[in-house]
Amino acid sequence: MWESPEPKKGYDVIIVGGGGHGLGTAYYLAKEHGIKNIAVIEKGWLGGGNTGRNTTIIRSNYLWNESANLYDHSVKLWENLSEELNFNMMFSQRGVMNLAHNEHDIKEMKRRISANRLNGLDTQWVDTKQIKELVPIMNTENLRYPVLGAAFQPRGGVARHDAVAWGYALRSNEMGVDIIQNCEVKDIKTDNHKVEGVNTSKGFIRANKVAVVASGHTSVLAQTAGVRLPLQSRPLQALVSEPIKPVINTVVMSNAVHAYVSQSDKGELVIGAGTDGYNSFTQRGGYDVIEETVRAIVELYPIFGKMKMLRQWGGIVDICPDASPIISKCEVKGLYFNCGWGTGGFKATPGSANVFAHTVAKDEPHKINEAFNLERFSNGRLIDEHGAAAVAH
Amino acid sequence: MILINCPYCGEREQSEFTNGGEAHVIRPKDPDTLNDKDWGQYVFYRSNPKGIFYERWVHSHGCRKWFNAVRDTSTDTILKIYKLTDNKPDISEFQSSLKSPSGEPAVGSGNFAVKK
Amino acid sequence: MPALRNKDCNYISNKEIKITFDGKSYSAYEGDTIASALLRNNIRLIGRSFKYHRPRGIYTCGIEEPNALVQILNEHNEPNTRATVKKAYDGINISSQNRWPSLSFDIGSINNILSPIFSAGFYYKTFMGPKGFWKKIYEPLIRRTAGLGKPPKNFRSKSIHQNHNVDILIVGGGLSGLIAAKKLIDTNNEVLLVEQDSFLGGILKNSNKVKQIDGKNVFEWVKETEKLILKSKNIKILKNTLVTTYNFTNHLIALEDKYSGKKIDVSKSELTLHKIRTTHTILANGHIERFISFRNNDLPGVMLASSFEKYIERYGVTPDEKPVIFTNNSSTVSLVKSLINLNCKPSAYIDARKQEDIEDETKEYLSKNNILFYPESEVEGCEGNKKVEKVYIRNSSNKISSINAKMLCPSGGFNPDIHLFTQSKGLVKWDDKIISFKPDTAFQNTITLGSVSGNYEFKNLCKEINKKLSFLKVDDLNLEIKTNIRDNLSIKELWETKTNKKSKWSKSFIDLHNDVTTKDLKQAINEGYDRIEHLKRYTTNSMGTDQGKISSINSLGIVSKILNKKIEEVGTTTYRPPYAPLSFAAIAGRSTYEYYDPERKTPIHNWHIKNNAVFEDVGQWKRPWYFKKNETETMHQAVQRESKQTRQSAGILDGSTLGKIEIKGKDALEFMNLMYTNAFTKMKPMTSRYALMLGEDGMIMDDGIICKINDKHFIATTTSGGAPKVFAHMEEFLQTEWPHLQVYLNSITEQFTTFNISGPKAREIVSKVFSDIDFSNEKFPFMTFKTFNYKNTQARIMRASFTGELGYEIYISPQHAFELWELIFKYGKDFDLVPYGTETMHLLRAEKGYVVIGQETDGTVTPIDINFNWMIGKKKKDFIGKRSLTRSDTARDDRKQLVGIVPLDKSQFIEEGQHIVECENLPSKIKTPIEYLGHISSSYHSPNLSHCISMAMIKNGNKLMGKKLFVSTPKGTKNIPVEIVSPVFIDPENERLTS
After folding, report:
1. Which three-class secondary structure state does DSSP give residue C94?
2. What is the pTM of this model?
3. Is B20 an 8 Å CB contact of chain A?
């Protein structure tokens, strides 16, 4: 188990944010880059942010090469993560399906499948007959926007969200990383465009490098170092049903009707809704968003009309203008950001952490995250993944 | 769902409105004189504070008029609604009236239900 | 066996009903819940637990029930229904859950025998190796055992939503709620009172605690108060309605069961979801009794003391005549009194409090009635075969003895039911006096009354309510409340009793629903999961369908003891809505299926149906995709036929879905110059122009044809799907950036029905239809338009084309549209006019090299990328998106550019979405990424060229003209050799368009 030490006076690297990405960054810094004098500082409890609030979908079927490489790097790490961390991530590669509801969806998906194939990904087109075989309870015809087919990635799936944070925490702690919970970073201290450390609720902690992985709160922290980030924090909601015996053996996402569903190993249906259209840090979105998702769900799966919602909750996601993340250094020396994951950060956890660790250690990006820089918002080289993000932003 | 008091129609549910992001961001008068970075700031960068936020809304399923609002993004409390022609209210007007639910801090994920 | 009942229960009717449980028929009474009906028939075993498949019985008498979940077979197999809430009715068919083959013999109970290995966090630590075992063996195995109920059957609900706007919402029609309501009778406040049960009264009906109110017996008082409320003009009561959700801005969700105790009529709405907006919310939703952890505290026959009392008082059924009572507080004596009133007697009364802390009245009452009394004692555990048979008692001198009993009723104290209060974002505070959290600071306009506020004393109740509602300026109400028990609660902290008799299969549960034991909690803390949120997730404590209503505070108590912290330091986990599981059907309401999203149809829709159109969804619109000439014609055949015929003679498209926006005003010209890339200043009046609209990021957002009537008046068309967005975009800039411009915008999409006629015979046809208009090339050249009066409505004809042929777009009032359409066909017959759909439209424009927004463009394409440099008004100082075009990356000249592509072997067909590569073959399994130049955005078999034509966006495309490359195929390894050509395949000189 990880310890809960008091912070030291200073560290080589301070990671702000004890979610999966932050803890993973610490793990890879220690393991692959030999940096051991690291602190992960978490305001609340480990994995208490979006790591513990998401619907755990893992896939890599993104359109652009940059994204496909990044997310597939992640999926590959996922595939061995349980063994590597000796902690069961329960990564269940049950496949992820994106439904097409109109001709435009079909065209977009076929293009994505072809691009994925050339990038070595396993995405494939499945017709309605194959969909019915994979998900017999789905209603494909008798609904307002019929299901016309789907893009299916068999290697995709779901994992146990808490396990990721805990697994990384355990192993990085074993390598000497300090994990400091219940410690709030109030601001980032800089001097002459160079990072000096962070002011926290437990006092000032010096650091050579500060890596901020604070999801929805990243831009608030960046502001304290005088750095502006093109992020907007939005509520994203999810819900689970009561547990029932297995009925749906794959992950089904539908962009057009804003709903995605998988069934947990406990039997609960885990359902993701869309984001709200306004900035908020309340971890609570509009009730109408839940309503919209649920009405799509009962139409797609007529048996769900007799199911009940057990819990609903919200997280705060940080959204970039091009629906792609930022894994980048910035104009302040020694300050690094990993943010802007929007609705899709969980799947990227190991890959993001891995290349971010590289970026922090070497002070230059890994070739996988080279394109995910801040300059793209000036020079126009965006990685527009609105089509693949699967949730309306 | 929060309620928004449209200055033209009155109080309605948020779902009748569309959010237009940060308010008082003025489109550069002469874009060609800006360098890539400054232009990028205008196109892609918007403030994202936890707390007092000046923002724009449009009553898209109503009168279709745009207006401004001041909202506390940490509680979704609307502190003021004003027309585009009105002056930007000073931030000091709101700082004292902020009410924090569950004692949430200015930075951090919150989720506290117990009074300390 | 005849159903048992207590004679003097006011809440159960005399009418007998028949219910079926696990295939056997039983008698019950109308008004029974499933649980009370089963108890009436002496049924104790009702289900199997989630993880260990341990036998479980009915633990409570309400919404907090962790065990008694059943499946309703005759209601579409509804799973996980709370037997303690769901009302029975004649003919209801119920089955137990999570057992196979039967409830009493359940194979899954092997998990209980294996349970020593299923400890907390077990899954995280095991089931990993050897490699591949997780995926192939462990995971499928775990998944098969998942879940509780069986899946329901298809169900199309007719549930509805109802909105309320009130001044005051009262949640809970118990004593506090009724007093509050009574105070508000005939005041100026509009009040809604919501009660989850079918009767008002709360504790007055559920227990024996209150004797009289204002000198009247409680049943009479409630009846009378209800009558007064119903007579009032300002208060409405909703019964059988549960408030589940407390959102921001005092927005609450409540679910009403319209068929409580009745068989559902599937043709009617069975549930109403109430959406309540209120100025003030009064929470009077009471408290929940909590349990105590001891060895085998899950055995059927263990039932919370106040629930037992509720079965007696509310349902008129006595679950057992001689239960053992185990308490840590003063309230439980009312159960003893209830039993004595029925000539029953507890087998023993075990009170954990010290002799001197126990009320004298209680001691006297117990001794007077000769009840075995154990002060300063506790239940060590209980045993029995699928039911309680023996209870082990540890007395004050630490000696353990046992007595025989069938039921055991623990009471671990009461929690104010703060779920809704915390949902509202109110802060709670720990109260040592009642040993629980209670509301402290409200975040919204929320008032808590009675036990939910932590006030358990009846004599103070009116005072509390008067004080808290004084801001409403209503009269004080002082009622005399006489009770059967001593009023102030005395309680001793007790979460778990010490286990003496250790056995691997005996367990002391902290979460009955998720089968979490106190040992699991300890082990998890030992492993370091000592944050309450980690503990919850690691052990799944309080994450079941009951959300730990009877046990979550207990787990905090146990954790605080282990960590040697105060409970308030341990903190509480977040309560997440809903308060109790909420039906998906109710949330969805009527906005499903035919009401999911409106279908938009053009005025010609019925004609299309009659003429065998196959439709496609374009946004909300239903558009003809193609027209089937006969039953056997395939889509390919139809599209080839339509395309060919249009180029040979003439075709007509129903283009009504095109967005139309009228732009008028003094500054219309300046506005248009800013909104579109094109320069409109020099454009002549009564001419039209193809135009592009960009986002501020420089990427193409939409396109359309702009008609300039004069500098003060324009009409723009938009794409069908883009119309709302374009209109909103214009409005935004007009109102927020350029309010000084005097411009008025008007969406006229629905005001004009649009037909596109094109083909070499188009002129002849329109000349016949509109005989007084001169359609000659000189008088009506390409990209001009005419407005005219058609049967006293405004009409417009524009000479434009999206097919590359001579074409006219007719804009006509919808009221005359259908007759005009038919008229066109009347004349068109002689010219071989063919109706065509969107697919043919797409094919024809591809032959001509025209782009489709959303197909060639994807939000990353600039006008320059699609060779539309000429459409950029270079002399214009500014337009939206202009500056972005010169950013360093956007200005590169090797970006992806629009090209045409044809296969070298003309018999081959190129699929849309495939990619252009430099290699002839692909490996069968691609391991390292293959570089590609771009993708095929459109591809059709051209009937006019008799081979495949494609459009593509490829890197540096302009410089690759004539180059031989390859296009991938969906699955094969052999790529298609192709040549890069101009995207204009037909009539590059525009002769057809302009002659």
Report:
1. strand
2. 0.94
3. no
Nearest by CB: B1 against A43, A282, A287: A287
DSSP, res B89: P
Coil, strand or helix: which one is B80? strand
Instruction: Name the packing angle between helices C360-368 and C333-341 (round to 10°).
Output: 30
What is the rounded distance in angstroms from the CA atom of residue C471 to the CA atom of residue C42?
51
Cβ(A97)–Cβ(A103) under 8 Å? Answer: no
Q: How far apart are CA A251 and CA A270, in angstroms?
A: 10
Structure tokens at C393: 């008692």
Best residue in C552, C559, C587 to probe A by mutation, most A CBs within 10 Å?
C587
CA C738 to chain centroid: 40
Going by C-beta distance under 8 Å and a sequence separation of 6 or more, which residues neighbour residue C637? none
d(CA B115, CA B100): 12
pLDDT at C5: 62
CB of C311 closer than 8 Å to CB of C317: yes
End-to-end distance of chain B based on CA atoms, in angstroms?
A: 29
> Does the model's ipTM exceed the 0.90 cut?
yes
C-facing residues of A in 10-39 (CB < 8 A) are: none
In this prediction, residues C556-581 reach a mean pLDDT of: 88
State mean pLDDT over C495-500. 93
**Which residues of chain B have a CB within 8 Å of the CB of A281?**
50, 73-74, 110
Distance of CA C49 to the CA centre of its chain: 28
The gap between the terminal CA atoms of chain A, to the nearest Å, is: 38
Q: What is the mean pLDDT of residues A7-29?
A: 97
Chain segment C345-398, per-residue pLDDT in tens: 999 999 999 999 999 999 999 999 999 999 999 999 999 999 999 999 999 999
β-pairing, A308-319 vs A232-241, is antiparallel
User: Per-residue pLDDT for B114 more than 70?
Assistant: no
Cβ of A279 within 8 Å of Cβ of B37? The answer is: no
**Domain that residue B37 falls in:** 3-115
Number of domains in chain B: 1
DSSP C46-90: -EE-TTT--EE----SSTT-SS-EEEETTTTTEEEEETTTSBP-T
- Across C248-385, where does the E strand assignment appear? 251-257, 271-283, 287-289, 324-327, 348-351, 373-375, 378-383
Beta bridge partners of A338: A327
Asked if C891 contacts C884 with a C-beta cutoff of 8 angstroms, the reply is no
Q: What is the pLDDT of residue C121?
A: 72
Residue type, C269: S
The CATH number of residue B78's host domain is 3.30.2270.10
The dihedral region occupied by A192, where left means phi > 0, alpha psi between -120 and 50, and beta the remainder, is left
**Smallest Cα distance from B86 to chain A, Å:** 22
Distance CA A329, CA A361 (A): 11
